[in-house]
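Listing S7. Sequence submitted for prediction.
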Amino acid sequence: MADDNSLFAAAGGRLEVAAAAAEVSDDTLERLRLPKSVLKVSIPVRMDDGSLRTFPGYRARLHPGRRRQPLQEPLLRIGVDPSANRSDKDQHATGRRMSDTDVFGRTDLHYAAADDDTSRVRETIAAGAEVSLRDHERMTPLHFAAQQSSLAAARELIAAGAEVDAQDDNGNAPLSTAVFESRGRTDMIALLREHGADPMLENHHGQSPLGLAKLMGEEGALFPDLQS
């Protein structure tokens, strides 16, 4: 197995190459060198022989949001116009219509939700973006809002008819995402539940938001009304 440090160094090297090609500023590159935060959980697993083993799990929270703008100029210099063959009407600063999808299957609404930019959320919905559009991983803008604890954006999405229990490729609904990213905060979880999110909804691996909270040792704080 490759040494963890060598894997990290290799990833850092690829970041340096990509940043140079995209002409990313030194300040931005410095922010991208390390994740914004890392969540560590302990996951008990019942083995085939009946024994119980506990494995560590990690989730690195990076710096999501709109990272496309720095790439526009290099694309133009090599002859690729990201706004080619598109109407000038309703164009965003990146040269894309706000209702268009990018290579990940996301509209600007996904990124506006992650940024908790309510003005952009409303503007993008008005421009025709589907409020519960799933990207290539079947994540909706509400998943993005839950992941980033973007409470104001989540309210706007729900008011516009966002599907509260939409499930991604792994079967996780926004409530599961909110639980995983909660860090003791309950406001996103309360908002989603207020609008019908199901704490018992299992993903494709049989795990529910409530079950995830139990694994994290946070069920009492996150779901006090469901304690037996």
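Caption to Listing S7: primary sequence and predicted structure tokens for the chain studied. Confidence is low (pLDDT under 50) at residues 65-95. The two ends are 44 Å apart (CA to CA).
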